[in-house]
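Q: Got one fold?
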Amino acid sequence: MLSCKGSLTSTMMSAVRTLRVHGVRRCLATQTDGEVRIAKILKEKFPSASALRVVDISGGCGAMYEIHIESSEFKGKRTVQQHQLVNQALKEEIQGMHGLRIFTDVPKD
């Protein structure tokens, strides 16, 4: 299995970045354009988010993402309501996706 340690050429790094199928994780040193775009939208929609992680789990093609977001804006809302807020924020982007995994949480005080 490839790891992120050591010296990698840009071609090798590009290949490593795309590995994320069937449990193989890719190096997260750089983000895909889709990950950056989605993270930007969520940061704007949830400015009080204390944690945010967006991962392209489709192998880099942008068809499926996993989102982990922790925000005080979710306080008092059921999980389904929290997910609805994320879905609403990403309404335009979701149209071009195959799937989306959402994990939400409220910061611990």
